[in-house]
Amino acid sequence: MSVSFLISQAKSVQKVIDENSAEIEVLDQKIGDGDHIFNIQRGLKLVVELEDSIKDLPLAKALNMIAMKVLSGIGGSSGALFGTFFMTMAKSPDLDKDVDFNKACEMIISGIKAMKERGKADVGEKTMMDVLIPVSEKLNELKNESEFKSGLNEVIKIAEERMLSTKDMLATKGRASFLGERAKGHIDPGARSSQLIIDTICKSVINN
Amino acid sequence: MKKFINNNDDFLKESLTGFGKAHSDIININLDPSFVSRKNKTKDGKVSLISGGGSGHEPMHGGFVGHGMLDAACPGFVFSAPTPDQMQAAAEHVDSGAGVLFIVKNYSGDIMNFQMGAEMYSGKNDSIVTNDDVAVEDSTFTTGRRGVAATVLVEKIVGSLAENGGSLEECKKLGEKVNKNAGTMGVAFTSCTVPAAGKPTFDIGDDEMEFGVGIHGEPGRKREKIQASKTIVGNILEAILDNLKPEKNEKNLLFVNGMGGTPLTELYLVYEDACQILQSKGVQVTKSLVGNYCTSLEMQGASITLLKCDDEILKHWDSPVHTAAMRWGM
Fold this sequence. Notes:
heterodimer, A: mainly alpha, Serine Threonine Protein Phosphatase 5, Tetratricopeptide repeat, globular, B: alpha/beta, Rossmann fold, Hypothetical Protein Tm841, Chain: A,domain 3, 6-stranded mixed sheet, 8 helices, 32% helix
């Protein structure tokens, strides 16, 4: 993981999210309040715009700037959760040394753990954590393997399965939780956007 | 979408700046990070009250900044929680040393962002969470009930206590009591349109209403055919009374709140219906509030809030207040 990796991933994710924005917007209007996609798009735009200010910075500083930008620029649950994610990654030890796959996995795992604590949500509650927690567990298995690229295909598969599994869940956290039975039958918009982000990044790592 | 708008990115900034100019005798506007604060500095020893939330509910919360109510309000994007840096900056700006009480509506995003703001603020602070909406059931498995119109009452009543020298602990305690004594339920006839979305949040037939709607256009209990006002009001009150169970001799405040697109004529009709129904059930109404206070953009609809009042609540309800949206006694 490097600053240039972060910037190029942000750009790829922005493209994919934009392509799928209509679908996510509709999902959120069905069971939420319709702000999720705009928050995610605004956040990605802000991060991509940071390119010139962070490209020559050390990784920890760049991650911290991304965290503060996400935290102050997005709002809603997404801002707090993704801000927490980057802030936690920025606090990882030894970021001045080479960040290999193993180390990157550990950073992502700790970031997701902090999101879980901030949002007080676990799997089965129809939120983005339904995708992120299983992905984090899989990364924990993969981190020491030399053949991690094939493992990332499994991460892609897990993210997709878990995203789809939110469809039949009752929401117990987030805005959809107020709907009870009426939230059933709709995929959680946060689970969908998180799955798209994971899908994009994993594919890019596999192909490079 | 038909709205007064120049471009989406400047929508909030322009509105907030206009709000600041229109009420420059009461408040100041800070941009980047954005917060509304009182024109006059918080007096020494007075607890500061800070609220906030997504925009689109005006006059809540900026319209309640001023003497006898809030010290500052942090507006987020439309229907999106404000960010922690706003709360931190607002707290640093208004705290006179007696501490800050954050008043937060019960939504995941608001809770998380206010928590982070409170963690980032080094001064003494505490929070209360409002959750007066009886439309959605509270259970150990859910985030709980939504915070809606009773937040206005909490801000007024706790604001008075703070103005009169209440400590941070006393303000928190009174806020929790008001929240616990209040129940709200709303109904919508039309959807609202978030400017960034450009189209209505939900589809609803010309002859339908959403019973138990949330203040962001979130679905409520059920979709029904529209009925006579008396029937709608009766059903709303039944849900509230089930929940609050006021005693026969207890005094109550009846608050009819417009969602933004319903004229006052109709809101007063709703108030009359509610008074009659409550009287027939032996529920005493001694205080009133009618108007658009906790809105949902241009949504047509209304919510009814009932607040059980003891002498402490009544005293602080009647005390002077001078804000952009609420003013009496001074």
